[in-house]
Amino acid sequence: MTSNAKVERLSTEKIGKLLWEMSSQTTFSLLVYAVYSITDTYFLSVGINSLAAAGASIISPVLIALGAVATTVGAGGASVVSRALGEDDAIKASRTIANTFLIFWVAALTITILGAVFIEPIVYLLGATETIAPYAIVYGRIIFLGALTSTGFSAIIRADGNIRYSTAIWVIPVVTNLVLSWLFVMVLRIGTAGAALATVIGQAVSASMAIYFFFFRKNRSYQIKAAYFKPDWPLIGEVLLIGFPSLVKNLSASLLVIVTNNLLKLAGGDTALAVYAIVNRLYASLNMPQTGIVQGMQPLVGFNFGQKKFARVWETIQLSLKSSVIYGLLVLSLCLLIPAALISLLSKESAIIAEGQFALRLLALSYPLTGVAMITAASFQSIGRAKEALLLTLGGILLVKLPVLLLATHFFSLTGIWASEASSELILCLVSLFMLKNFQGRFTGLRPFPSHQTASKL
């Protein structure tokens, strides 16, 4: 099948078949990472103790921040590179890649120096207790020192059309990390340092694969010269401007985690932080298929909107919403029925299992709801409605989740923290449905959707 024929399928094949194909592929990749995340937490919790798992969890905002920097320059760089290649401007593409690496290395080096020097106050700022702090300091210091290796720029590799390599540069480091975590923590008993070292080595594999791709492989699209690393300020500004929304979104998510950790420290101490480290990892991993649905539906929405096949756009959105809600109900049922069995996959400590059941049940109430806002935001993004998409993503964190978390904790203490996620998602779900109904048939100022079929279904 030719590439044109593959693209045309998006406007001719049955939506259900296309959504399944595309969502299953993205979900598989996400589940690989989910398996790693769960297993890594298991090694820390069982191989050391739950406090070690909590120490690594305390450092997670640092990883989110590093990811924010990488995503910002990666997304911005990929956009510029993609357009430059489309214009047959290989020199601009090469200069963009060189400047993208330059931006990231400067930012990562700054983070490394600041993190290594101020590691102790940083872990307490992130929410560590006196008991958890030693684990967080050991883990965090190594993560900071490895910051320079924390991305492989898979987005830019995808912009070059190398889908397989962009997948490999993600999967191979994850597998490396997983194997080394088992070796260092469970076999060699290196402890928390072993888990952090495995993470950095996995990142280094990804960075090495990226350097090979951009600088050493044969028949490459880029011939990057040393002179291209000279700062090109207009180009740097363009890259940062395009990637800025990703930076704000990720830093907001990092802020939410920091606030949550500090509230948990005040409300429940070591046990609450340890429970959060285990339960939140389970919660996020079980949520991966919903993220896969979102990533799978975006090309369908964007392509069919561009083709002005608005009925197919709406059908894709509706089917995605239904699929997400059904999956959420199934996972909710699982968490309500066997929470202890799920938590025992990551921890063998009776106190964590006992406390974690209540937390997991309350968190799981959000599963049928959480995909609604994600799908709505992705739909608006796919049709070029950036303001609406940003309102639901960034606004959802700063204007809904953070205030609800603070209010729930104030009135209901620890129970409020566990219940705040579902409460927030309920508000975002209602807002999302209102926004969808408001824009139904008016994406372009027309009424392309059959309102008698769709309005009643929202």
Summarize the structure.
This protein has helices at 3-12, 15-47, 50-58, 60-86, 90-117, 119-125, 133-145, 154-159, 163-187, 192-216, 233-286, 288-306, 310-337, 339-343, 350-364, 367-382, 386-439, 451-454. The protein is mainly α.
Polypeptide structure, described:
The chain has 458 residues and is mainly alpha-helical. It folds into 2 domains: 205 residues, no CATH class; 225 residues, no CATH class.
How far do the termini sit from each other? 37 Å
Q: Any idea what the shape is?
A: globular
pLDDT below 50 for ≥5 consecutive residues: which ranges? Answer: 443-458
Instruction: Give the SSE string.
Output: HHHHHHHHHHHHHHHHHH
Largest sheet: none
Helical/strand content category: mainly alpha
Task: Give the helix level as a range of percent.
Answer: over 70%
How many strands appear in the DSSP assignment?
Answer: 0
Q: State Rg.
A: 22 Å
Average pLDDT number:
85
Please, how many domains? 2
Strand content: under 5%
Q: Helix count, per DSSP? A: 18
